């Protein structure tokens, strides 16, 4: 029984898969946050340009 438990404790294949999953999740969160920030910045910039063009036509 102790040999089985010792072999189970040395097996790290599941831990590696979990680590890769956590890394993928972290990268996804970072990409979503970056895309959201970029989208907000672009929206503000395009609204500013639209206002400037509208004001210059009147």
UniProtKB/TrEMBL annotation:
<dbReference type="Pfam" id="PF04964">
    <property type="entry name" value="Flp_Fap"/>
</dbReference>
<dbReference type="InterPro" id="IPR007047">
    <property type="entry name" value="Flp_Fap"/>
</dbReference>
<protein>
    <submittedName>
        <fullName>Flp family type IVb pilin</fullName>
    </submittedName>
</protein>
């Amino acid at each position: 029984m102790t040999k089985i438990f010792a072999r189970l404790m040395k097996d790290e294949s599941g831990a590696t898969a979990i680590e890769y999953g956590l890394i993928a999740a972290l990268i996804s969160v970072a990409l979503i946050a970056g895309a959201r920030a970029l989208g907000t910045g672009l929206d503000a910039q395009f609204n500013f340009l639209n206002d400037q063009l509208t004001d210059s036509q009147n």
